Amino acid sequence: MKKNFDVSVRTITNSSCAIMKTSPTIDFFEIGPPKTGSTIIRECLAEHPQIFMYKKGFHYLEDPYYKDMDEEKLKLLFSKAKDNQLKGAKRALALCKSEIPQRLYNINPKMKIITVLRNPIDRAVSAYFFYINNGKFPCIPIEKGLPELLKGDIIKKYPLSSEILECGNYYKYLLNYLEYFAINENIKVFFFDDFKKSSGSFITELYNFLNIDSSYQPNSLNTNVQPSIYSINRLKYATLGNRFRYIYDSNNVLLKKNNRTFFESIGLRIIEVTDHYICKNIFSNAPPMLSSDLKRKLIDYYFPDIKNLEKLLNKDLSTWLEY
């Protein structure tokens, strides 16, 4: 399964930086993808006393950030971990970043990889509204927007929006990890539906995979995750605050959080309060029911990847293909 080459000191493809095999170990990595419950799962991992979880999204192993990473910087990121704790990190987009698997293997060939998969159509719907909310896609109804993404032309104007559909091609991106890590031994594939059915059993299985105390009950399981906003009209108002939250480049790519002035902070607060106390109660937040035509197009788009994933995991995923 693993490539046959010397990894004692390895230069990473398309990067000026190399992290040696002797680097401080990251014991496990949660690779997403986005909108599959990865945030609440990260919280359950971070809460466990036998785990030190890097507190933010760990983007340092992807381009273009990796060129600035070295052994000392990596060590510093996990410097607060206790000797008896596993060190872990999460990056929701890591599954879809082809450069990351080799870099994880360089750090720790025995690393545990965690991924949670969700019906890719349901995931795409959730991601669609999430990307609108973050200014990565325009506020247009899903029956118009998803067909535009399937055609691909709109991606030229909103480059990051390609991730809305692309990150649901699980088999395609798992293959990159299987070049370096073995399924079940190193890679554990979980399913979002199992989390919804029994979150407690799900977390117990997760802890068992990491060989830590599985009797621990994280308080995060009782936390209400911030719900998505599904109303386009509400999003049109709520996203007015993005001009104060983020800085974008000329291609509508979100660059970073904005260091707001006092008046910008006041403006943002007014928008947030109005949205929470007025818009939230005016506009319905029910997830959209996709038309049969759009559902068919999405099933056709994901069909080859789903069938390959079924063979890889030896799991029946036929419910993902139901109209």
Question: What can you see in these coordinates?
Answer:
The chain is built from 13 helices and seven strands. The protein is α/β, with parallel strands linked by helices and 323 residues long. It has two domains: 1-227, 3-Layer(aba) Sandwich (Rossmann fold); 229-286. The strands form two sheets. The chain has a five-stranded parallel β-sheet, sandwiched between helices. A two-stranded antiparallel sheet has the order 6-7. 31% of the residues are buried.
Instruction: Give the CA-based shape.
Output: globular
CATH level-4 homologous superfamily of the largest domain: P-loop containing nucleotide triphosphate hydrolases
Q: How many strands in all? A: 7
**Proportion in helices:** 40-55%
Query: What is the CATH domain class of the largest domain?
Result: Alpha Beta
Order of helices and strands: EHEHEHEHHHHEHHHHEEHH
